[in-house]
Amino acid sequence: MHVARLSLTDYRNYERAELELGPGATVLVGRNGQGKTNLVEAIGYLATLGSHRVSGDQALIRAGADAAIVRALLSHGDRELLVELQLNRQGANRAQLNRSPVKTRELPRYAHSVLFAPEDLAIVRGEPSVRRRVLDELLVQRTPRLAGVMADYERVLKQRNSLLKSARARGLAVDKLTTLDIWDERLVALGSELIDQRLALVAELREPLAAAYRSIVDADHAPGMTSLLSIDGADPDAEPEASAAVSEQVSGTRERFAEALRVLRPKELERGVTLVGPHRDDVVLLLNGLPAKGYASHGESWSFALALRLASAELLRRDSMTGDPVLVLDDVFAELDRLRRDRLASAIAGFEQVLVTAAVLEDVPRPLIARIVHIEAGHIVDEAAAEPDAEPEPDPDAPSTSEPEAADV
């Protein structure tokens, strides 16, 4: 699959933008703050229903506008799909597929992309929430209905936390909270599905992760992933005494989840918050059997993050009926040394469409400079194919050798 045309209306700093794209590599070049990332962020939103830079939608709508529209023509073989999304400042967002209304959570079924960004270093070095989000975004692209499951879980979690806070404020005893049992049942049903889906995904990622890491580093550092589940007493955020001591005789995710809630109910009432569930889980990333977060160097951390993105792309490529996901590299090459730049460029060379943003064209490996688009102050000012006979800049460190009107969506 590739994006054949991208149209934006009142999105970020773009009043109107129309960009024709095609298979192969395209480099979006411009100084920082001109709008390069905004273009690729819009494509990523269609695939993941979220931005890699902000948690809410309001920042995506241009100042003074009531809504932003993202429209993408997706091409796969002889088939084309027009996907449209309207982000509203007030009210629910709206979506269309070939001009027919659809639920917004259906969009990841048709738009697949994997985005590499400088923020990816936080996958290795950041908080558990970053790693949870990476897994959940991939789950939604592979199984779009899980977006609804995740939204339902968050609603139930919010209601349960409100009840716990209210009970704490009123000084209610544990045995008086009969209504909590109803929320517990729903929390366990939804949360257990998310836990099982994440566990299965982690298992699937291990092999392509190892292969991707070797392609970038050309060394076997035994990269791995291990899930830490709060329902088994492995909550990385809770105080030690709040960990659930789940009986070894309890098996099955639902049973362990329910047992953890039972054991922790006094602590939850005391603190007014739900202490176990997929919202408090983590994934430990390993190199040579040690946690990468504490032991990996800067370069190893970057390689791990890149390898995880590549592994995600391989899973989408393998499972998708629409072919390759669109690969987006947002100002990544400026963060890498020359060796990792070249290895990453080689690793992604076989994908149908690659979009690269860069402030300096020289940062981008020559094999990815097939087409150049210049961006300035929210405008596409110049589009051109790279000159095929142009010689790359010499490396001084190398040894010497011989838009239309917005639709009502």
From TrEMBL:
Positions annotated to bind ATP: G30, R31, N32, G33, Q34, G35, K36, T37
Residue ranges constituting the AAA+ ATPase domain according to the UniProt record: 22-379
SMART domains the UniProt entry points to: AAA
Pfam families listed in its UniProt record: SMC_N
Ranges annotated as biased composition (Acidic residues): 384-396
GO biological process: DNA replication; DNA synthesis involved in DNA repair; double-strand break repair; SOS response
This protein's UniProt keywords: ATP-binding, Cytoplasm, DNA damage, DNA repair, DNA replication, DNA-binding, Nucleotide-binding, SOS response
One example GO MF annotation: single-stranded DNA binding
GO cellular component, one term: cytoplasm
Annotated TM spans: none
Region (Disordered): 383-409
UniProt-annotated location(s): Cytoplasm
Function: The RecF protein is involved in DNA metabolism; it is required for DNA replication and normal SOS inducibility. RecF binds preferentially to single-stranded, linear DNA. It also seems to bind ATP.
Family indicated by similarity: Belongs to the RecF family.
Name by which UniProt lists this protein: DNA replication and repair protein RecF
The organism of origin for this protein: Agromyces badenianii
Name of the gene: recF
